[in-house]
Each structure stands twice: as structure tokens, then as C-alpha cells.
Specification:
This protein is mainly β. The chain has no helices and eleven strands.
């Protein structure tokens, strides 16, 4: 069983920056991927950013060029640096770790609110 604990988030004005962190109780360098998702009110959960075990990085179209995902295998943590934040980035953000893709086995953080004011 893997536990993920998130930190960061909060309230920021449009154009500002925030950093989210996710700490894993498991060894992340073995994980298939580590990811960030978000869910805004009334919307489906969407993938924001991911890093695979091979180091391949992927971003959602709406955050490309503004958000950066990174990982620190030594600390078993990964991060989401968010810049040039927009009101439409307001959502609950979740970290996610995929330990096995097939069949999918994954774990979720507790979620953290990010609110961007205009």
C-alpha cells in the first residue's frame, strides 16, 4: 500500500505562481508514472501533467508552457510548479502514482484546493 501526501496550494491572484508537492511512502523510481490531475466544480477530472519511469513528460494542452512537473527520486517526491496562473486553473489538484499500468494499479493523494482570483 502506498500513501501519498500532498502539500501546497491555496489562493493566488491571476498571473501568480504556486508549487504543489506530493510525498510518497513508496519508492517512486519504480513507479510506472507519477502524475498530477485536477477537477474543477462540475467538470471531470483531467490530467494536468505526468512523468513516466523513462522520464517522458506530458502536459495537458491548457497548461503547456505554464506548468512544470518534476520528480526527486531520492526524496520520493514530485512537484508541480504552476506559473502564469489563470482563474480557469481553479480546481482541486490531486497527485497520482501508477505503480503498475496493466492491470492499472494506482494511488491518489488527498487533494488540495488551488484558487486563482481574477
Amino acid at each position: 500500500q502506498v500513501q501519498l501526501v500532498q502539500s501546497g496550494g491555496g489562493l493566488v491572484q491571476a498571473g501568480g505562481s504556486l508549487r504543489l508537492s506530493c510525498a510518497s511512502s513508496g519508492t517512486i523510481f519504480r513507479f510506472s508514472s507519477v502524475n498530477w490531475y485536477r477537477q474543477a466544480p462540475g467538470k471531470q477530472r483531467e490530467l494536468v501533467a505526468s512523468i513516466t519511469i523513462n522520464g517522458n513528460v506530458n502536459y495537458g494542452d491548457s497548461v503547456k508552457g505554464r506548468f512544470i512537473i518534476s520528480r526527486d527520486n531520492a526524496k520520493n517526491m514530485w512537484y508541480l510548479q504552476m506559473s502564469s496562473l489563470k482563474p480557469e486553473d481553479t480546481a482541486v489538484y490531486y497527485c497520482n502514482a501508477v505503480t503498475n499500468p496493466f492491470p492499472r494499479s494506482d494511488y491518489w493523494g488527498q487533494g488540495t484546493q488551488v484558487t486563482v482570483s481574477s
